[in-house]
C-alpha cells in the first residue's frame, strides 16, 4: 500500500530561489526532451496513401529517443550546460520519465483503445514539481527534512509520518519518494511511504 502525505515547507530565501531555478531548468529540459520525441515521430511518420518512394527521398534512419537514450544524454547536457550539474541526478531522470509517460500516452492506446491528446510544451510557470525517487529512511528529523543539494529545509509536520517508533512493526512503513510542489501559497513536500499491508 502506498500512502502519501502533504506537508508545508518553510524554505529560507536562498532555498526558495534555488527551488524556482530548478523548476525553470527542469521545465526547459522537459520541453527539449519532448521536442526530441516530436522530431523523431514526425521524421519517421508517413501516410500510406501519400508517401511514394519514387517522388520523395528516403530519410536517414534516426534512433528513437526512448527513455534510456535520453537518460544517457543527460551527461552531454551537463557538459554543455554546467548549471544542470547542480540539479540532483534523480530529479533530472524523473523529468525524462515524465516525458516518456506523456508521450507514450499520446502514441499508444490504453486498454479501451483511447489515446491521450498531443502533449503540450510547458510555458513559464507551468512546471510545478520535482521528485526525488529514492530517499533515505531518516530524511525527516524533528521539524527538518534533509533534501539532497538543498540541505535541511524546515517542514511543518501537522501529523506524524508512521515511521520508526511511531509505526507498528507489522506495517513496516518506509519513505520511498519525496515530491516538492510549488503552490500558490508556497512549497509543499509530499513524502510517499510504502507499507507491506
Notable traits:
197 residues, alpha+beta, single chain, 3 helices
What does this structure look like?
The protein is α+β, with helices and mostly antiparallel strands and 197 residues long. The chain has three helices and eight strands; from the N terminus they run ββαααββββββ. The protein has one domain (2-46, 56-194). Strands 1, 2, 3, 4, 5, 6, 7 and 8 form an eight-stranded antiparallel beta sheet that branches. Helix 1 packs parallel to helix 3 (89-107).
What is this entry, summarized?
The chain is of the alpha+beta class and 197 residues long. Helices cover 33% and strands 21% of the residues.
Query: Span from first to last CA?
Result: 6 Å
Annotation, overall tally of beta strands:
8
Helix content: 25-40%
Mean pLDDT across all amino acids: 84
Shape field: globular
Instruction: Provide a count of the helices.
Output: 3
> Measured on Cα atoms, how large is the radius of gyration?
21 Å
What share of residues are in beta strands?
A: 15-25%
User: What structural class do you assign from the helix and strand content?
Assistant: alpha+beta
The domain tally reads 1
Uncertain spans, ≥5 residues at pLDDT below 50? none
Largest sheet: 8 strands, antiparallel
Topology (elements, then pairings):
Elements (H helix, E strand, L loop, with lengths): L1 E3 L2 E4 L2 H32 L22 H14 L8 H19 L21 E4 L7 E2 L2 E4 L3 E6 L17 E10 L2 E9 L3
Antiparallel strand pairs: 1-8, 2-6, 2-8, 3-7, 4-5, 5-6, 7-8
Amino acid at each position: 500500500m502506498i500512502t502519501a502525505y502533504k506537508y508545508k515547507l518553510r524554505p529560507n530565501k536562498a532555498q526558495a530561489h534555488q527551488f524556482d531555478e530548478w523548476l525553470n531548468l527542469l521545465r526547459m529540459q522537459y520541453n527539449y526532451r519532448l521536442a526530441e520525441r516530436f522530431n523523431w515521430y514526425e521524421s519517421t511518420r508517413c501516410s500510406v496513401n501519400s508517401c511514394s518512394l519514387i517522388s520523395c527521398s528516403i530519410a536517414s534512419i534516426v534512433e528513437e529517443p526512448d527513455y534510456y537514450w535520453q537518460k544517457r544524454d543527460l551527461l552531454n547536457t551537463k557538459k554543455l550546460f554546467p548549471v544542470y550539474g547542480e540539479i540532483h541526478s534523480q530529479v533530472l531522470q524523473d523529468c525524462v520519465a515524465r516525458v516518456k509517460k506523456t508521450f507514450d500516452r499520446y502514441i499508444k492506446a490504453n486498454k479501451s483503445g483511447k489515446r491521450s491528446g498531443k502533449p503540450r510544451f510547458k510555458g513559464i510557470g507551468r512546471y510545478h514539481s520535482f521528485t526525488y525517487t529514492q530517499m533515505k529512511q531518516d530524511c525527516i528529523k524533528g521539524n527538518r527534512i534533509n533534501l539532497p543539494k538543498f540541505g535541511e529545509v524546515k517542514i511543518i509536520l501537522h501529523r506524524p509520518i508512521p515511521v520508526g517508533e511511531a509505526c507498528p512493526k507489522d506495517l513496516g512503513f518506509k519513505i520511498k519518494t519525496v515530491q516538492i510542489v510549488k503552490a500558490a501559497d508556497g512549497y509543499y513536500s509530499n513524502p510517499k511511504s510504502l507499507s507491506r499491508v
